[in-house]
Amino acid sequence: MGKNLPILTWNGRILSDEEVEYQLSSVSSSDDSKEFNPISLKDFMSLTKEELLEMELSSSNMPLRERKLLEKERDSLKGG
């Protein structure tokens, strides 16, 4: 598996081979694929800053303070 491109999490952390194997096995055995949504490096690099902020805000386990800062940044990008 070491020859494959790295798989990134929503915050840009690269998963280890073991984490990828675990996530792929848990996704394939479950209908709830919201927990792990792999994105290719090419797709990740083509995202706009606004799209990246939306991805981060969709994380349910983000601290409120961090969420408020990201919402403020997102709104300023939208011109609000």
Order of helices and strands: HHHH
Number of domains: 2
Average pLDDT for all residues: 72
Helix content: 40-55%
Inertia-based shape: flat
* Major sheet attributes: none
Radius of gyration: 15 Å
Poorly predicted runs are: none
For the record, give the distance between the C-alpha atoms at the N and C termini, rounded to a whole number: 45 Å
Portion of residues in beta strands equals: under 5%
Number of helices: 4
Q: List how many beta strands DSSP finds.
A: 0
- Quickly give the structural class: mainly alpha
Concise overview:
It contains four helices and no strands.
Q: How does this structure look, described?
A:
The structure is a single chain. The longest helix is centred in the last third of the chain and has 15 residues. The chain is 51% helix and 0% strand. The chain is mainly alpha-helical and 80 residues long. The radius of gyration is 15 Å and the shape is flat. It folds into two domains: 46 residues, no CATH class; 34 residues.
